């Protein structure tokens, strides 16, 4: 039973609690509990209810301030702002509210304003003796004098959970500044206090952070003992957010001392706890301007590392290979969710496939990029194989980014050394496995820097890989439904395109050729050209007919900030959310859109997050597959390739149609350079 | 009248109605306008970009003074010519690579390139000499964003060095530059023909006959815009 419901019941059944102020207070208490456990949305619910009860009473304003803070921590600055601004006008709640407002401004990049607010908050807190608020303001301002003062003030404050939390946060700040003595003293105090109060939650953080201190000093045994204590305390407090952090720390310490099986167990526990608080954590990280991949990604990869490590000559059991891949899949799914700020992507995960049943003549390549090596998991009709490649992450990143840059430069063949080296490092070791199974189609599930490079452009010494294999890519394995497209009935095709220069973007004259090519191929296709291609008409078309193919030949840009990703329409832009909304109108039918073609998009070289956005667009838009470009060359070659692709679609799989179209273009001596034919990616359902 | 008629015939030859052939070459020679005989019938297309359709309104268009197929030269260090439609402060990069192309033989930027104008690349100045029989690719790229080369407005062509044809070796001595140029064109040695006319034009930029000769050649290989520029420049 949830804490809130318990409290509510207690309130209803309890005798003397008819006073609504008491109810409000109780609800605020509950909210604080939720907040401490990391359940930010529940905290908000409780505070909303509390605010209701507190209306008209002196409590109201401080509840308002608390609610503002809760919204801020959940990443909803819009709702937080008015609440905090109001609270800041009342002396009783001003200090705390000003502190939170300062954080809001800091998050939105207004550092000057933020610092002024923190200073003001500190001043008010000092005057009113509110040591905890003072400490919070000092931490936010990150001002050394204030931090010094905060240590003193916190020493004098009576022990409580809030006081201990403040001491822990202050200790972290000191540790980061190299003030290890102060950090140690603060944490010791917090530890003793939480022990005395039997506060498991505070204890977990105090012990855990002490563990970090010792770990930093290389005193592993002590660090591990403290961390284990933190883990136990977190379990007692049933606090998943605390549990995941300290389990992760324990895992790292165990791995460091070579106790790999114990480390593995700790990693698994850490991951399980993390998933429990995933939604709230994503929101909080975003509220702090951090990405999921940066902050929490390493946990997934460290676990995968433990699962995949093996001695020379030894092999890892299939079950562990599958587990490692599933772990990385989870990371990818959350990354996509974080990128699109869309929880529906996770819902797609529910459609897990029996991935080990791979189609004949198909292989799935699943690279896992680790700091010291690359683990390549290869799924074939016969089963999954592991290849450990000596390619550390930073080297791979440098090569991949360099390759990508040079691929776009059509004036020279400077891409070639990269193409050869990457082939030798990544693909050559896999060749014998592919040859043994007669593989013709390779599905590549890239990660990190591998997302921005077209594998078909690797060079084996005699030719490009695309000459021998058809490639498809997907953001994750469970996000792809490798089913054949039943009986191909009459295909309904919607074609949109911009040829003219609009909104200061250059004209796309070759789109004219592209569109005429499509007109010849698909006699019944519907066209929205130039001024006809606006969001309302686009929407109307998708609502009116059951389209299988939607083709958009217009500038598309994918950015590391998903809000900056868009497709250009005649008089505006289609954001990713808008695209999803419009395309999903087709979802009310039996079949989703089979193919979404974006023939003129770009992602910046070296921007792996932007490439993630591109790879995820099919999922986001609800199409079973997408044909999109990593970069766009405003030349005849592009329109030739696209027309050829569609021409071949009737006779073969999408992956092979793309391969054949690419080979056709590369066979023309004018367009042999991969800058012309390599940017095209087939994403998703490759059949 | 005859001149106009022949000229008209040559114009149509340029647009592909009648393939350039020996008869045209003789007719043209007798009328004074050079005719280019492609070295190989049905040779694959090798010229990239160069069409004004591909250009942004803000960016100039670039065209190489090259035929649509592999152009020939007998010189070790031929002059290469290219055209820019308007002046620009955007980076304009000149590149020459051999058949491997992994390290460019020539790569430099032209600061504040002028236009409309024909520019020359001097291989000798860059200490590059062409080996016989090798296909060298050269290109001019207008680079609005050096971090995103896919956005380049680019024109590219090919040059190959061959031995001096018999006819030319025999008739070379004593021939005027103009006669030599006409000879090279008729024998399919594009770059040498263009280089001779271009040298003469550089010395006498307003000479209508010279401009007309170069324009004729350009038109025969489909470079209508540059031909128009030449004709205008002589006015």
Give the overall shape of chain A, derived from the CA principal axes: globular
The main pleated sheet of chain B reads as: 6 strands, mixed
- Continuous helix count of chain A: 30
* Alpha carbon gap, first and last residue of chain B: 21 Å
The helix content of chain B, as a percent range, equals 25-40%
Share of helical residues of chain A: 55-70%
Give an overview in words.
The complex is a heterodimer of chains A (687) and B (235). The model of chain A has no long low-confidence stretch (mean pLDDT 88). In chain A, strands 7-6-8-12-14-15 form a 6-stranded mixed beta sheet, with helices on both faces. In chain A, strands 3-2-1-4-5 form a 5-stranded mixed beta sheet. Chain A has a 4-stranded mixed beta sheet with strand order 11-10-9-13. Chain A is α/β, with parallel strands linked by helices and 687 residues long. Chain A contains 30 helices and 15 strands. In chain A, β10 (566-568) and β11 (573-575) form a beta hairpin. In chain A, α8 (131-141) runs parallel beside α10 (161-176), α10 (161-176) packs parallel to α12 (200-216) and α21 packs across α22. By secondary structure, chain B is of the alpha+beta class. Helices cover 32% and strands 21% of the residues of chain B. Chain B contains 7 helices and 9 strands; from the N terminus they run ααβββββββββααααα. Chain B has helices at residues 2-14, 22-31, 166-171, 177-186, 190-203, 208-220, 224-233; strands spanning 48-49, 62-64, 71-73, 79-84, 91-97, 106-110, 117-122, 135-143, 153-161. In chain B, strands 1, 3, 5, 6, 8 and 9 form a 6-stranded mixed beta sheet that branches. In chain B, α4 packs antiparallel against α5 and α5 packs antiparallel against α6 (208-220). The longest helix of chain B is centred in the last third of the chain and has 14 residues, at 190-203. Chain B is globular, with a radius of gyration of 17 Å. Chain B starts with a helix and ends with a helix. Classes of the chains: A alpha/beta (687), B alpha+beta (235). At the A-B interface, loops of A face β1, β5 and β9 of B.
């Amino acid at each position: 039973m949830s804490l809130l419901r318990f409290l509510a019941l207690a309130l209803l059944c309890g005798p003397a609690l008819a006073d609504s102020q008491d109810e409000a207070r109780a609800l605020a208490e509950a909210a604080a509990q939720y907040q401490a456990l990391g359940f930010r949305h529940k905290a908000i619910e409780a505070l909303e209810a509390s605010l209701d009860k507190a209306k008209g009473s002196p409590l109201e304003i401080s509840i308002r301030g608390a609610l503002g803070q809760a919204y801020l921590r959940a990443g909803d600055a819009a709702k937080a702002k008015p609440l905090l601004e109001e609270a800041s006008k009342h002396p009783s709640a001003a200090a705390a509210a000003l502190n939170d407002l300062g954080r809001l401004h800091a998050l939105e990049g207004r550092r000057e304003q933020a610092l002024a607010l923190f200073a003001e908050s500190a001043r008010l807190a000092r005057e009113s003796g509110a040591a905890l608020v003072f400490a919070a303001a000092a931490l936010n301002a990150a001002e050394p004098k204030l931090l010094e003062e905060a240590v003193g003030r916190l020493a004098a404050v009576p022990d409580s959970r809030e006081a201990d939390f403040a001491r822990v946060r202050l200790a972290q700040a000191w540790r980061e500044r190299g003030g290890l003595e102060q950090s140690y003293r603060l944490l010791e105090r917090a530890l003793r206090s939480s022990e005395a109060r039997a506060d498991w939650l505070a204890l977990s953080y105090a012990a855990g952070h002490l563990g970090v201190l010792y770990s930093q000093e290389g005193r592993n045994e002590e660090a591990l003992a403290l961390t284990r204590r933190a883990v136990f305390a977190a379990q007692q407090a049933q606090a998943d957010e605390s549990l995941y952090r300290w389990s992760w720390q324990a895992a790292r310490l165990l791995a460091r001392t070579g106790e790999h099986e114990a480390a593995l167990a700790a990693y698994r526990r850490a991951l399980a706890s993390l998933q429990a608080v995933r939604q709230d954590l994503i929101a909080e990280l975003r509220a702090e301007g951090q990405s999921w991949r940066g902050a929490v990604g390493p946990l997934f990869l460290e676990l995968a590392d433990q699962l995949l490590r093996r001695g020379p000559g030894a092999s890892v059991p299939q079950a562990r290979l599958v587990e490692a891949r599933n772990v990385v899949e989870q990371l990818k799914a959350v990354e996509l969710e974080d990128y699109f700020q869309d929880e529906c992507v996770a819902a797609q995960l529910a459609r897990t496939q029996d991935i080990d049943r791979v189609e004949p003549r198909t292989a799935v390549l699943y690279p896992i990029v680790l700091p010291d090596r690359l683990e390549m998991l290869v799924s074939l009709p016969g089963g999954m194989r592991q290849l450990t490649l000596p390619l550390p992450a930073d080297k791979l990143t440098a090569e991949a980014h360099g390759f990508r840059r040079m691929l776009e430069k059509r004036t020279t063949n400077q891409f070639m050394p990269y193409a050869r080296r990457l082939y030798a490092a990544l693909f050559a070791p896999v060749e014998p496995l592919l040859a043994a199974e007669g593989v013709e189609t390779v599905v590549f599930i890239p990660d990190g820097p591998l997302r921005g490079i077209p594998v078909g452009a690797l060079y084996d010494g005699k030719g490009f890989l695309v000459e021998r294999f058809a490639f498809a890519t997907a953001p994750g394995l469970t996000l792809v439904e490798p089913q054949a497209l039943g009986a191909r009935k009459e295909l309904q095709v919607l074609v949109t395109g911009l040829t003219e220069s609009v909104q200061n973007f250059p004209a796309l004259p070759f789109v004219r050729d592209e569109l005429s090519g499509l007109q010849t191929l698909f006699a019944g296709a519907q066209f929205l050209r130039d001024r006809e291609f606006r969001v309302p008409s686009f929407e109307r078309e998708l609502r009116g007919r059951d389209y299988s193919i939607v083709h958009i030949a217009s500038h598309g840009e994918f950015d590391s900030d998903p809000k900056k990703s868009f497709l250009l329409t005649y008089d505006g832009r289609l954001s990713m959310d808008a695209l999803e909304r419009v395309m999903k109108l087709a979802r009310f039918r039996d079949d989703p859109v089979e193919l979404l073609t974006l023939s003129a998009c770009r992602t910046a070289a070296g921007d792996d997050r932007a490439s993630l956005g591109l790879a995820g667009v099919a999922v986001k838009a609800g199409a079973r597959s997408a044909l999109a470009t990593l970069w766009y060359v405003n030349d005849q070659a592009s329109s030739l390739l696209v027309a050829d692709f569609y021409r071949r679609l009737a006779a073969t799989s999408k992956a092979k149609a793309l391969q054949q179209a690419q080979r056709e273009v590369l066979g023309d001596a004018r367009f042999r350079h991969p800058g012309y034919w390599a940017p095209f990616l087939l994403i998703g359902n490759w059949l | 009248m005859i001149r106009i008629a022949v000229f008209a015939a040559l114009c149509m030859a340029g647009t592909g109605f009648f393939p350039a052939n020996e008869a045209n070459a003789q007719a043209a020679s007798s009328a004074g306008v050079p005719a280019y005989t492609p070295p190989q019938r049905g040779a694959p297309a090798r010229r990239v970009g160069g069409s004004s359709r591909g250009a942004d309104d803000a960016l100039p268009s670039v065209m190489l003074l090259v035929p649509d197929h592999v152009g020939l030269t007998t010189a070790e260090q031929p002059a290469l010519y290219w055209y820019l439609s308007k002046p620009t402060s955007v980076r304009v990069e000149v590149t020459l690579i051999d058949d491997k192309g992994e390290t460019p033989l020539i790569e430099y930027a032209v600061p504040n390139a002028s236009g409309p104008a024909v520019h020359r690349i001097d291989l000798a100045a860059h200490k590059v000499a062409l080996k016989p029989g090798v296909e060298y690719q050269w290109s001019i790229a207008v680079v609005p964003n050096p971090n995103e080369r896919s956005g380049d407005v680019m024109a590219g062509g090919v040059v190959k060095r061959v031995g001096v044809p018999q006819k030319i070796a025999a008739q070379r001595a004593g021939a005027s530059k103009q006669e030599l140029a006409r000879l090279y064109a008729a024998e399919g040695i594009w770059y040498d023909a263009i280089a001779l006319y271009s040298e003469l034009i550089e010395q006498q930029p307003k000479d209508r006959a010279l401009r007309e000769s170069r324009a004729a050649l350009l038109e025969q290989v489909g470079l209508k815009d540059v031909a128009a520029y030449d004709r205008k420049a002589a006015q």
